[in-house]
Design brief:
heterodimer, A: alpha/beta, six-stranded mixed β-sheet, 9 helices, 10 strands, globular, B: mainly alpha, MetI-like fold
Chain lengths: 313, 252
């Protein structure tokens, strides 16, 4: 008698578990991975306010690859930094998987324009760094790090020092380092813009393959439309001063895509055309920086007050 | 290789002139000893262990004093470099104190600690600590913000951020400060040992003077120079070079 009751109880609990999992899955479908809500941010420059971001609303699905494209100084890096928790917005909220973010955290790892690898550690220890902060034990850490180094094809260089690597290799280590943390999403801030064209081409392939394998949600900032078309599921165009979402494009081309593919090129040209006005605005401003009163504020702030490049020691 | 030959020839010439000056007999031997007698004193000093014991005693003092000043210097440097209030207060005191020659601490050291080892160690600490503090402060301030951001997004916090990111990132500066600090510490140690009678290399110099044994004075000076060169050239210069290479501050 007692036994049967017990069995019934366990069945009940299992049932609840299954149901709750289904519910969670449903929620996941409804709930976006990333939700950016009414984000605004302005900077002070020469005692004048400058609206870098104005009422930005953006969502990204689980596993979606979103590119934010905009001219330099439009606040796209600022937006990424806000999502990363490295900068604070004046107003608005950022939610990751239903949790409101508060400061930087290992659930959103950033890959910067410069690899930001630590030169005092060798390659594998760099990849292990985040895991070590999490408190993962030594051998498990090493295994995870090796797994991701393998993904970026750099196991041979695991004991190399950072100064021995090329720019492209550094970024691949940075990607491995970010993936090893198994973050909720990857934030990439013009990660390939300092590389030469060939290396960039290779890394576009590599990143797409990694994304197909890991299905991470990626928020990728770039000023290069071709790069965005090559990588993204969805492209979000930011306008400049004030930084607003101007337009969105969905890219439905087969993967992995090639920078030089005709479809990619054609698609880029189409977006370019639509953006002509915006680009002209920036160009005009830069050309007549002295005479243009209207865009004076913007031009002064374009001297990047908030560069992410740390500079040499 | 060629430059080594030139250097060796130069020193042979120097010793030759020295020997020649002695042969002229202008000065008595207690003013100018022969190179040979200095050499003999050196051999004798090492043979009967007097020099070795003196070196050991001096090195022990500098090891303790310098070790303490590294710990204090890095700690103070981090405080000043990272926390505004300490920079505005302690920072000005440190840069003020740096203008004070270390030996000026001697009267205070004697009153506080008496004529003993602790007074000398105190002098060594005061000699090295300020250089290390200032270098650490500079190093901490020039840690690329990119490293800090990367570390933060990977979840580095609190003392781990200091230990695993800020201090290593500041290391090229810190090691330069340590090198300078070591040479100040070495000077302070010798000054202290000359004035406070309690063995050590400095004391050995003073014994030479008291016994009118100029060859001992010069022999001990040579030992002091050689130790200085060994530590500076063979240790600090190499370590500094390697760190700068690794940190990507020089092209290899």
């Amino acid at each position: 008698m007692l036994e049967s009751v017990e069995i019934e109880n366990t069945i009940d609990i299992d049932q609840i578990k299954v149901e709750s999992r289904q519910l969670a899955n449903k929620l996941n479908d409804v709930q976006p991975k990333l939700r950016i809500q009414n984000i605004s941010k302005s900077f002070q420059s020469n005692n004048r306010g400058f609206s870098a971001l104005e009422d930005i609303n953006l969502e990204a699905r689980e596993g979606e690859f979103v590119c934010i494209v905009g001219p330099s100084g439009c606040g796209k890096t600022t937006l990424l930094n806000i999502v990363a928790g490295l900068e604070k917005a004046d107003s608005g909220e950022v939610w990751i998987s239903g949790h409101k973010i508060n400061g930087a955290g290992p659930d959103r790892v950033v890959i910067f324009q410069e690899a930001a690898l630590f030169p005092w550690l060798n390659v594998i220890k760099n990849v292990e760094f985040g895991l070590k902060q999490k408190g993962v034990n030594g051998s498990q850490r090493r295994n995870t790090a090796l797994e991701y180094l393998k993904m970026v094809h750099l196991t041979k260089f695991q004991h190399a020092h950072v100064h021995e690597l090329s720019g492209g290799m550094k970024q691949r280590v940075a990607i491995a380092r970010a993936l090893a943390m198994n973050p909720e999403m990857l934030l990439m801030d013009e990660p390939f813009s300092a590389l030469d064209a060939q290396t960039r081409w290779i890394l576009h392939f590599e990143l797409q393959n990694i994304w197909l394998k890991t299905k991470k949600t990626i928020l990728f900032v770039t000023h290069n439309i071709r790069e965005a078309v090559c990588l993204a599921d969805r492209i979000v165009i930011l306008s400049t001063s004030p930084g607003r979402i101007k337009k969105e494009f969905t890219v439905e081309l087969p993967r992995p895509r090639d920078d030089n593919d005709v479809n990619v090129a054609e698609y880029s040209t189409r977006i370019m055309k639509e953006l002509k006005a915006e680009i002209n605005k920036v160009v005009k401003c830069e050309m007549d920086a002295d005479s243009c009163v209207e865009c004076d504020i913007k031009c002064t702030t374009e001297v990047p007050a908030k560069t992410d490049v740390g500079g040499g020691i | 290789m060629y430059s080594i030959i030139k250097r060796v020839l130069f020193f042979i010439l120097l010793i030759g002139i020295w020997e020649l000056l002695f042969r002229f007999g202008i000065w008595p031997e207690y003013v100018l000893p022969t190179p040979v007698s200095v050499g003999k004193t050196l051999i004798h000093g090492f043979h009967d262990h007097t020099f070795l014991i003196a070196i050991a005693i001096s090195m022990k003092r500098i090891a303790i004093g310098y070790g303490i000043s590294i710990v204090i210097g890095i700690f103070l440097g981090l405080l000043i470099g990272r926390i505004r209030i300490f920079e505005e207060t302690l920072g000005s005191l440190i840069s003020g104190l740096q203008t004070l020659p270390t030996i000026c601490w001697l009267p205070l050291a004697l009153l506080w600690f008496g004529l003993n080892d602790r007074a000398i160690i105190f002098l060594v600490i005061m000699g090295a600590v300020l250089s290390i503090t200032i270098a650490t402060d500079t190093g901490v301030k020039s840690v690329p913000i990119l490293y800090l951001r990367a570390a933060k997004t990977m979840g580095a916090r609190g003392w781990k951020l200091y230990l695993e990111v800020i201090i290593p990132a500041a290391l090229p500066h810190i090691i330069t400060g340590m090198k300078q600090g070591w040479s100040f510490a070495w000077r302070s140690l010798m000054a202290g040992e000359l004035l406070i009678v309690c063995l050590g290399l400095g004391h050995l110099l003073m014994i030479g003077r008291e016994l009118n044994d100029m060859s001992q004075v010069i022999a001990v000076m040579i030992v002091i120079i050689i130790i200085g060169i060994l530590v500076d050239r063979l240790f600090f210069v190499k370590v500094e070079q390697r760190i700068r290479e690794r940190w990507g501050l020089v092209k290899v």
